[in-house]
TrEMBL record:
One of its GO terms (cellular component) is plasma membrane. This is Monosaccharide ABC transporter ATP-binding protein (CUT2 family). The lineage of its organism: Bacteria, Pseudomonadati, Pseudomonadota, Alphaproteobacteria, Hyphomicrobiales. It comes from Bradyrhizobium macuxiense. SMART domains: AAA. Signal peptide: none annotated.
C-alpha cells in the first residue's frame, strides 16, 4: 500500500488501496523472480529456561498468504514477534526485500513495511480510533497537531476498508469486534509490504470476516505478503497458499495448502494421529438446573428469552457474533444487568445475581476473553486458579490465606489438567492460550459446582488443547453437571450439545433436539428470522 512523506511533519500519506490499473502497474514494476519477500534462516530464541524457537526457517513470498500452524506453545507468537521487531533473535539471519536486517525494532519494522495485527490488541483504551491510528506518526504543522487532516485520512481508510467504525469514538466504548477493526486499520495506515494477522477473525461476525477476506485478496493482488496465524481449518482452506507447521519451537514442514489434508496438518502439528476431534459424550438429561423466563437485558441485547438447561447434558447456544448468546449466560452469572424476567437455579428464584453469589450457588462461568476478563496475567498461576475458592476453609481461615494448602491443592489440580510446564508460580501471562484456558478450568475444581457456563471455549486454542477442553466437559456431564456451551463455531456446538438453542438478534430463533440438530436447520433459523424481521 503506497505512501509518501508529506514534507509537513514527517507523517505518511493516507493509506489507499490501489485501483486495478495501478495494481497491474505495481505487479509489472515489482515482479522480481525468485527472492522471497521475507527469508528467515536458523532463527532461535531463548527465554529463561525455555527454548521458544529452535533454528526456524521461514520464507514468505510477495503476494502469498502463508499460514503458521501449530499448537499453543509451538512458537508461532514468538516467531511473529521476532518478525515484527518485538523480540531480537538470539541467532540466525533475517532478510527482508532482499536486504539483511539487523537490530530490528517495531518502529524500524513499520518503516520498512512490516505491520502486525496481534491477537492481544495494542490500542490505548482512553484514546479515540483516529488517535490510535496515528499514535507515533501524528500529522503536525509547526509543532501543532493537524487534527482535521488526521480525521480525514482515518475516515478515508475506514471507508475504503468497509468497516463500520467511527474515527471519533473512544476505544473503550467499542465492542471487541470493532476494536479488532481498529487494530487492522491501524496496521494498514502506512506503507505495508508484509502484513501479519494473528487470529484476526476471532471477534468478527460472518459479514465482517467476509470483508476481511476481500481485503486480503486485494492485498495479495498488490504483491503484499501475509503471515496468517489461525487454528480454523475453514479459514486455512479459504485463504492459504502455503502452510508452515511448527511444533515445540521447531519447523516441522512447509506444505502447499491445495495438496495437504486436514488430517495431515493436524498430525504434523500434534505429532500424533487424531481420529476424532470431538469425544463421544453420554448425555443423561435429568433435573432442570437453569431456567430463564421472559428474560430481557437492560441494554436490549437479549429480549424475552425462555431457556432451560438440565443436569447430565450439554445445552448448546449457537448464533453469530452479536446475537445475544454470550450476554444471556453472562446475565445468568450476574455480569450483565437484567430489566425483566426470571432466572431460577436448581428450581429456586435467583434475584439480583452477582458472580460471588453465583459461585456460592454452584455456578461457574468461563469467559471468551481470557485476557481482559479471565485472568490476572501478571499474577502466578497458583493465585489465578485459587481465586474463586478463597472464601472456602480449605484456602483461608479467619481471613488469613493458608498458602501451603493453596499450593498443594492447585499443584494437584494443574497436574490433573496436564499443565505444561507444571510450574504454578509462573505468571499466567507467560502461558499459551491453551494453558491459560486450563488455569481457568482449574478454578472449577476448587469447589463444589453444578452448573458450568462456557463462552466460546475453544477460541484461540489449538486442536490438542480443544480436545482436552472437550474431555473436561465430557467428565462434567457424565458426573451429573449441567453444562451450557455458547459457540460461534457451528461444528463444535453441534457435536457437543444434546439440545441446541439458536439465537438471532437477541431472541431464541429455534430449539433443536435429536436429529433436528443439523447445520442446515441452524442456518435456516438464522435466515428465517432475518426474513421475518424484514417483512415485519
Amino acid at each position: 500500500m503506497a505512501s509518501r512523506p508529506n514534507g509537513r511533519g514527517g507523517s505518511e500519506a493516507p493509506a489507499r488501496l490501489l485501483t486495478a490499473t495501478e495494481t497491474r502497474m505495481n505487479v509489472e514494476i515489482d515482479s522480481k523472480p525468485a527472492t522471497p519477500l521475507l527469508q528467515l534462516r536458523g532463527i532461535s530464541k531463548r527465554f529463561t529456561g525455555v527454548r521458544a524457537l529452535d533454528r526456524i526457517d521461514l520464507d514468505v513470498r510477495a503476494g502469498e498468504l502463508h499460514v503458521l500452524f501449530g499448537e499453543n506453545g509451538a512458537g508461532k507468537s514468538t516467531l511473529i514477534n521476532v518478525v515484527s521487531g518485538t523480540f531480537p533473535p538470539d541467532e540466525g539471519t533475517f532478510h527482508f526485500g532482499g536486504e539483511e536486517i539487523h537490530h530490528l525494532t517495531p518502529q524500524r519494522a513499520r518503516e520498512i513495511g512490516i505491520s502486525p495485527v496481534f491477537q492481544e490488541f495494542s490500542l490505548i483504551p482512553s484514546l479515540t480510533v483516529e488517535e490510535n491510528l496515528f499514535l507515533g506518526r501524528e500529522v503536525t504543522r509547526g509543532g501543532v497537531l493537524h487534527s482535521r487532516e488526521m480525521r480525514k485520512r482515518a475516515s478515508a481508510l475506514i471507508d475504503e476498508l468497509g468497516f463500520d467504525l467511527d474515527p471519533a469514538q473512544r476505544i473503550d466504548d467499542l465492542s471487541r469486534a470493532h476494536q479488532q477493526m481498529a487494530e487492522i486499520a491501524k496496521a494498514l495506515l502506512g506503507r505495508v509490504r508484509l502484513l501479519i494477522l494473528d487470529e484476526p477473525t476471532a471477534s468478527l461476525t460472518e459479514r465482517e470476516t467476509g470483508r476481511l477476506f476481500e481485503l486480503i485478496a486485494r492485498l495479495k493482488s498488490q504483491n503484499v505478503g501475509l503471515i496468517y496465524v489461525s487454528h480454523r481449518m475453514r479459514e486455512i482452506r479459504a485463504l492459504a497458499d502455503r502452510v508452515t507447521v511448527l511444533r515445540d519451537g521447531r519447523h516441522i514442514r512447509t506444505l502447499d495448502a491445495a495438496t495437504s489434508t486436514d488430517g495431515e496438518l493436524v498430525e504434523l502439528m500434534t505429532g500424533r494421529t487424531i481420529d476424532l476431534l470431538f469425544p463421544t459424550i453420554t448425555h443423561q438429561p435429568d433435573k432442570v438446573m437453569v431456567e430463564v423466563e421472559n428474560l430481557t437485558l437492560a441494554d436490549g441485547s437479549v429480549r424475552d428469552v425462555n431457556f432451560h438447561a438440565r443436569s447430565g447434558e450439554i445445552t448448546g447456544i449457537a448464533g453469530l457474533v452479536g446475537c445475544g448468546k454470550s450476554e444471556l449466560i453472562r446475565a445468568i452469572y450476574g455480569i450483565e444487568r437484567t430489566s425483566s424476567g426470571v432466572i431460577r437455579i436448581d428450581d429456586a428464584p435467583y434475584e439480583f445475581p452477582t458472580p460471588r453469589h453465583s459461585l456460592k450457588r454452584g455456578v461457574a462461568y468461563f469467559p471468551a476473553n481470557r485476557i481482559a476478563e479471565g485472568l490476572a496475567l501478571s499474577r502466578p498461576i497458583r493465585e489465578n486458579a485459587s481465586m474463586t475458592g478463597l472464601d472456602l476453609p480449605a484456602f483461608a481461615r479467619f481471613g488469613v490465606l493458608r498458602q501451603a494448602a493453596e499450593r498443594v491443592t492447585i499443584a494437584g489440580i494443574m497436574e490433573q489438567l496436564q499443565l505444561r510446564p507444571p510450574n504454578i508460580e509462573r505468571s499466567a501471562g507467560a502461558l499459551s492460550g491453551g494453558n491459560r484456558q486450563k488455569v481457568m478450568l482449574g478454578r472449577a475444581l476448587t469447589r463444589e459446582l453444578t452448573v458450568f457456563l462456557f463462552d466460546e471455549p475453544s477460541v484461540g486454542i489449538d486442536v490438542g488443547a480443544k480436545l482436552e477442553v472437550y474431555e473436561f466437559m465430557k467428565r462434567l456431564v457424565e458426573t451429573g453437571a449441567a453444562v451450557i456451551v455458547v459457540s460461534s463455531e457451528l461444528p463444535e456446538v453441534l457435536a457437543l450439545s444434546n439440545r441446541l438453542y439458536v439465537m438471532h438478534q437477541g431472541r431464541i430463533a429455534a430449539e433443536l433436539t435429536g436429529a433436528e440438530r443439523t447445520e442446515q436447520n441452524v442456518l435456516s433459523s438464522f435466515f428465517r428470522e432475518h426474513l421475518t424481521a424484514e417483512v415485519a
